[in-house]
Amino acid sequence: MAEIKKTDALEKLAKLIRYFILASTTAAGSGHPTSSLSATDLMTALLFGGSFRFDVDQPGHPNNDRLIFSKGHASPLFYALWAAAGKVTEQELLTMRKFGSPLEGHPTVAFSYVEASTGSLGQGLSIGLGMALNAKYIDKLPYKTYVLLGDSEMSEGSQWEALQLAAHYKLDNLVGIIDVNRLGQRGETMYGHDLAAYKKRISSFGWKTEVIDGHNLDQILKAYRKALRTEDKPVMIIARTVKGKGVSFLEDRNGWHGKALNREQFEDALKELGEIDKSVKGKVKKPDKLLPEKGIPKDANGVFYLRDKPVATRRAYGNALKRIYPQFPDMVVLDAEVSNSTYSEIFQEAYTERFFEMYIAEQNMVGTALGLQCRGKIPFVSTFAAFLTRAFDQIRMSQYSKANIKFCGSHAGVSIGEDGPSQMGLEDIAMFRAVMDSVVLYPSDAVSTEKLVEEAARHKGIVYIRTTRKETPIIYSADEEFSIGGSKVLRKSDNDRVAVIAAGITLHEALLSYEELKKEGIIIRVIDLYCIKPIDKTTLQQAARDTKAIITVEDHFSEGGIGEAVKGALDLFSIPVHCLTVRKMPRSGKPGELLDYEEISKDAIIKKIKELV
Amino acid sequence: MAEIKKTDALEKLAKLIRYFILASTTAAGSGHPTSSLSATDLMTALLFGGSFRFDVDQPGHPNNDRLIFSKGHASPLFYALWAAAGKVTEQELLTMRKFGSPLEGHPTVAFSYVEASTGSLGQGLSIGLGMALNAKYIDKLPYKTYVLLGDSEMSEGSQWEALQLAAHYKLDNLVGIIDVNRLGQRGETMYGHDLAAYKKRISSFGWKTEVIDGHNLDQILKAYRKALRTEDKPVMIIARTVKGKGVSFLEDRNGWHGKALNREQFEDALKELGEIDKSVKGKVKKPDKLLPEKGIPKDANGVFYLRDKPVATRRAYGNALKRIYPQFPDMVVLDAEVSNSTYSEIFQEAYTERFFEMYIAEQNMVGTALGLQCRGKIPFVSTFAAFLTRAFDQIRMSQYSKANIKFCGSHAGVSIGEDGPSQMGLEDIAMFRAVMDSVVLYPSDAVSTEKLVEEAARHKGIVYIRTTRKETPIIYSADEEFSIGGSKVLRKSDNDRVAVIAAGITLHEALLSYEELKKEGIIIRVIDLYCIKPIDKTTLQQAARDTKAIITVEDHFSEGGIGEAVKGALDLFSIPVHCLTVRKMPRSGKPGELLDYEEISKDAIIKKIKELV
Q: pTM of the entire structure?
């Protein structure tokens, strides 16, 4: 009886929400009403049916249940839900998709109820996984994470990365809901309404699955209750739905994806919906007032390296993670099954509970990091620099969530040697520079790596740290300071004829060339451009004033790397900037041979300088 | 009896191959012997057991069976197999991983038996899928495609994209072999030796599966024969193997990944292997001498657009595909479920049999394109520019196969409008410029798009074509010619005070600013930089000589885009280069509003010019 009353109330709410969806998209003249209508009953029952717990006045409350629309194009539904909850007015809904409105075409963090910006399909489950991982293993809070998924987006491999890992970590606090409305953007999906195909595949990945009618409120409510009782496994609710549900001329019709109704169609649709009761308001159950135990920051130990013992910067990265954790107790470290190469294993051995093995699945690793940072963590994400390209879309999307994530790419450049081109990061600087407001760091020795990892942890935003496979000499003393936006002038005189700008492995080549040229009476300036973005214009421009030519040397392709960054900083100067970069097809060989072959070694620098002076 | 003799011969061969693996890695001082040893019996039985058909003297023969090592780090095994087949000498094997040797650390196309360079895990199955698709639907040849997979790499989402699509297209000519050796780089894989977990998951994706002992030659041979008889489904052979098989102190031991034996260990290993018969030679069955029917190129129709009717360049892309197909009968078009947005659907409607729906799975789409081009096709791959970032690792790897692939990214920049940042390609130019020897095209009207698509088809290599969502005016006449490396000076006089360099949507803003400024007596030069890479230095440098300042305008982030490309071309000039680019957090709004907001519109150009003159 109580259940009947509940579904009656939910039906009224669902009708109001459908009205909001149609009204806002028609007002906008674009958007995705049909993809919103198919999931309306599923989401109405979730938020207002008693399972979901959320303090609507405190969207940031640490024990709120989390809701992510992985099918971000259903944003009209998302906004309508919060309108039904009384947190968005109808007037505000009508600003949707208009310039300046927080209600953007796809959900962004401009709207405070959005956990993370979505819209590039197949990313929400990974984000949810990060939040669920946080609840179960870090904050140890009982909140649940719900992810609304589209059927079309299940073809993204990233989904299956998330599915396997969520099962591996037994995330029984993670619930996915697939809105199987059969139709993608341009026609039927691969599996259409074959719900059994989804069930078979998802359960084979270790999830508990529930197949339901996504428009039957009783079935939906039961499924959520069952999900709350499930232990040791994540739960996927696979719901058969009808795209455009509620408006007969939209229902299950191809050709209506991403199209708003015009005024006339809208009026016709309203007639079908029948009377809308705008006085109803959806009530969301409040969460228990629980807070995570917060670690108390303690001072980190100092840095110590022997001057005469070369250390790979990748190892210094691992050392730094371990060293600074007491100072940054929100740190979490993720690695894609190469922790013994990136040396994040040094952290893992010291703080096992804060390290998560993400296996060889970089997309999901980055999505998970995004979810973790949503919950206040500072994720450090590492793999080979080359393999971070695998997650470029996730990295790109994280900028729209104003994310606080630290990426470390090891094995940068041809200097990795024998393993050959597939393992060489040669476009990673270009990739990370192209991310809005990113910081790109490229230390050359263990001391600067340690200091820069610390700066990265302190900085709020996306930071990329590029490390080198090979051991490199220690060139800095332990008390040297490094800052984001800085550089170091390592060799300088009043008679510098050329300035050589390098970072990482090539800095050492530049220093060697300095010594050799000095013997011949040719004096050069050497600058360690350890921070490539933001770039230290002042120092570079001073070098342009003081010398006759600039040479940049980098173990990276020509485009988007150090050379172009330096040219960009010097465009008002008529000084020639010669860029020594990787220009020939990279291959296997000894590191030194490859630096020579690509003409980014000491000898190449000397040769270039001699051409110039 | 015959079978017994066969397995005896294969055992001898496998022993020789194991010897080659150990000898070559020990000589190199690095490499992956243990990952090679686990798959030795599987591959020996494949190549020399009677199922595989290949003309060893003609690796390019169109009806050869294809073999791809998706686990590229097992390259010592790959080279050893061809040594056993008599195509590589023992002496050559000992050059492995040395500078100049075609036997690189991971397989590259420098070695003529390599179909495509591998080494970034989780990509080989997609490549194989492209080859199998070619055999079944395009060349209609009976060759089979075999892909050797590692167990660790099965965690990559791209594998599941390939699995689902291969089943969807019923590729019964595709055989995967998973070498389940239990150990990844840094320890046990997610599923260890739980072969049932693999079987359950892979069969749920619609494949026929065979679970076998990967060191039992009888079982292996049977599995291959069964695979040949399977219809309508791809086949996955899931083989339980032992990492380091054949050398007791390596077998199933953690800590031996990617490590070569030293001399002493090598001698110990040889003792275990026992006598090696170097006189044995593996025989590979020849394929039937079948050739594909080749289409005969015919002249394409001319280009026709009405001068006064704006057309979106994305639509011109679709028109061009259809128009030029007769001239390039090797063309194949792939799209990631957005063909009604990229307009590749125009091609699909005309040449259905040459269009493949790849669903929302961009990584596999690019891998498949790589496989298709291996078989002589010219793949055109399209989706939203933003979503091509999803496949950056596959794009990156394709450069190491010297691939001939054309990419088209639609919906570039903030000018897409209301859909918001997740759908905006704003880093695509940076990404594609960073690919070695790539061509980056960005046409601004329908005529130049048509001509440049044609140039792209003609050019052998990786070409990126950036298209715009919005309609743009036709500015060129149908007989205008466009070339890779070119640009067009659209407005020019002897009194140009500033040169504005733009492409795509912003070119029209530049042309509008020209008209407005002209009324005020300010004359500017306007250049259409339709080819961003390689860049037309001559024209840009002439503009630098003729004017006082350069302004670049682009609907793309600052780094790696047109601005940096232009600065790179002008580094020897002291002319100021002002870059108008997307610098503020993009959002939803009308295209015009967003161009204004980001200061890349006509008004922003005029404002900047007035500051300068």
A: 0.98
